[in-house]
């Protein structure tokens, strides 16, 4: 069970790190670093709760097919994260100049859509939501701070590689769950 939880949380941290590193490459003052870290943490811990509630309802509706639906969502999310996201990245970086108000909310929403899908999966698989939310919140704050601080030191290639690694990890977890279910 713990390995599955780690398998869900760690890829989200890699994705958050990559986005925070892009922010770090743009350069943020200490006050903005703290604000962005808190925004990322709030969205990354809050969106899975919304997804969890929806996934729990969907799990009740689809019954025994819920596990397979959750596995399909994990694999699809992993594959989605593997695709090049140049346009999305430029849009996010455009928001960086304004890390306040609606722009900050837009940035928070843009980085937490995968957490919504993970929350949906958690609801379908009936994983312990509170534990996962705490783990996601802690990792979000830590990796955001690390990404922002290291962003200017690491290259674009490494940052993009971390995003792809996150996608591979989620797709692999989905495949492992599928094999476990079939065997």
Give a description of the structure.
The protein is mainly α and 183 residues long. The chain has one domain (2-175). The chain has helices at residues 2-26, 30-62, 66-82, 86-96, 101-111, 113-125, 129-150, 156-182. Helix 2 (30-62) runs antiparallel to helix 7 (129-150), helix 3 runs antiparallel to helix 6 (113-125) and helix 3 (66-82) packs antiparallel against helix 8. The relative contact order is 0.26.
What's this model, at a glance?
This protein is mainly α and 183 residues long. The chain has helices at residues 2-26, 30-62, 66-82, 86-96, 101-111, 113-125, 129-150, 156-182.
List the defining traits of the structure above.
mainly alpha; 183 residues; 0% strand
Can you lay out the helices and strands and say which pair or pack?
Elements (H helix, E strand, L loop, with lengths): L1 H25 L3 H33 L3 H17 L3 H11 L4 H11 L1 H13 L3 H22 L5 H27 L1
Helix pairs in contact: 1-7, 1-8, 2-5, 2-6, 2-7, 3-6, 3-8
The coarse overall form would be globular
- The percentage helix is over 70%
Q: How many distinct beta strands?
A: 0
Task: State the distance separating the first and last CA atoms.
Answer: 17 Å
Please provide the ordered H/E string of secondary-structure elements. HHHHHHHH
The main β sheet shows up as: none
Backbone CA Rg: 16 Å
Number of self-contained structural domains: 1
Quaternary state of the chains: single chain
The total count of helices amounts to 8
Report mean pLDDT, rounded to a whole number: 80
Strand percentage: under 5%
Instruction: Label the structural class.
Output: mainly alpha
Low-confidence stretches: none
């Amino acid at each position: 069970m713990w390995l599955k939880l780690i398998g869900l949380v760690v890829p989200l941290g890699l994705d958050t790190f990559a986005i925070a590193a892009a922010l770090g490459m743009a350069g943020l003052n200490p006050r903005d670093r703290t604000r962005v870290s808190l925004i990322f943490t709030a969205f990354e811990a809050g969106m899975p709760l919304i997804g969890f509630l929806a996934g729990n309802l969907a799990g009740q509706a689809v019954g025994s097919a819920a596990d397979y639906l959750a596995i399909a969502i994990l694999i699809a999310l992993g594959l989605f994260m593997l695709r090049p996201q140049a346009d999305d990245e430029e849009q996010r970086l455009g928001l960086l100049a304004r890390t306040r108000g609606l722009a900050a909310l837009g940035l928070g929403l843009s980085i937490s859509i995968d957490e919504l899908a993970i929350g949906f999966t958690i609801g379908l698989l009936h994983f312990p939501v509170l534990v996962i939310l705490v783990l996601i919140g802690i990792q979000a704050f830590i990796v955001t701070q690390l990404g922002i601080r290291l962003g200017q030191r690491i290259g674009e290639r490494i940052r993009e590689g971390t995003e792809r690694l996150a996608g591979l990890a989620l797709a692999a977890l989905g495949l492992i769950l599928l094999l476990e279910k079939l065997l």
